[in-house]
Write a structure and sequence with these properties.
By secondary structure, the protein is of the alpha+beta class. It is built from 5 helices and 7 strands. It is globular, with a radius of gyration of 17 Å.
Length: about 200
C-alpha cells in the first residue's frame, strides 16, 4: 500500500484512512445504509470458533454467521497481503473476500504500489472481533473491529531496497461484512490513522 510518497507504513495506512473517511460515516449510519447497532455487544473473535466443536450443526445461525464473517475478514487480509507482495492489482483473488468500497480501496492500494514500482513485504497483524450483527437472530450484516499493526508490512522497491523509513504503528480498523447470495464479503473497510488503538 502506498500513498505515492516516501513515507512509511504509518503514512501508507494514513493514506488509506483518508480514502476511507466517508466510509466511516457510512458505518456510523450516514449515506443511506443501515446504522451499526448502538447497544452493547459481547465481542466474538475467531478464537471463539476455533475452540468450538467442529460440527456446524452445533452452532446457532447467529454463531455460524459470525464465524463466516470473520473468515471473510481474515481472508480479505490474506488476499491483500498476497497481492501487495506482487503488485498484481488485477488478480481476481482480490474479489474472493471483498466487494464494494472495500474491494475498491484494496485495488487502489495495490495499484498505487504497482504504479510506483513498489511491493509490500512482511505482514500486518490483524485479529478482528465481531462487535455488531444485524438482524440478531440470522445476521446478514456484521461489523468487525480490529487493531492492526502495519509496522512489519513495509514497501520495498523492485530491486529489494526498503522504501519505508518511518516506523508504522497500530490502526483502528472497522469492517462491514455483508452476506450476498450466500457469500460473506467485506464490503466497507475503514483504517484509521496510526495510534488510534
Amino acid at each position: 500500500m502506498s500513498d505515492g510518497s516516501a513515507g512509511g507504513a504509518g503514512r501508507r495506512f494514513a493514506a488509506i484512512a483518508a480514502i476511507a473517511a466517508c466510509e466511516a460515516l457510512v458505518l456510523a449510519g450516514c449515506g443511506g445504509r443501515a446504522a451499526v447497532p448502538s447497544q452493547p455487544r459481547t465481542a466474538t473473535s475467531a478464537a471463539t470458533f476455533a475452540t468450538a466443536p467442529s460440527t456446524t450443526a452445533l452452532l446457532s445461525p447467529a454463531q455460524t454467521a459470525e464465524r463466516d464473517a470473520l473468515t471473510a475478514y481474515h481472508g480479505m487480509w490474506e488476499d491483500w497481503i498476497a497481492m501487495a507482495a506482487t503488485g498484481d492489482y488485477q488478480n481476481p483473488r482480490l474479489a474472493r473476500h471483498a466487494s464494494g468500497e472495500a474491494l475498491s480501496l484494496i485495488y487502489r492500494s495495490v495499484y498505487a504500489n504497482k504504479r510506483d514500482g513498489l511491493v509490500a513485504r512482511g505482514r500486518p497483524t490483524f485479529s478482528g472481533m465481531v462487535s455488531a450483527a444485524k438482524p440478531a437472530d440470522i445476521p446478514d450484516r456484521i461489523t468487525v473491529k480490529d487493531c492492526s499493526d502495519g509496522s512489519d508490512w513495509l514497501n520495498y522497491t523492485l530491486d529489494g531496497k526498503l522504501k519505508d523509513t518511518d516506523p508504522g504503528g497500530r490502526h483502528f480498523v472497522q469492517a462491514l461484512v455483508v452476506k450476498n447470495s450466500g457469500v460473506w464479503k467485506v464490503d466497507i473497510l475503514v483504517i484509521q490513522a496510526v495510534g488510534t488503538c
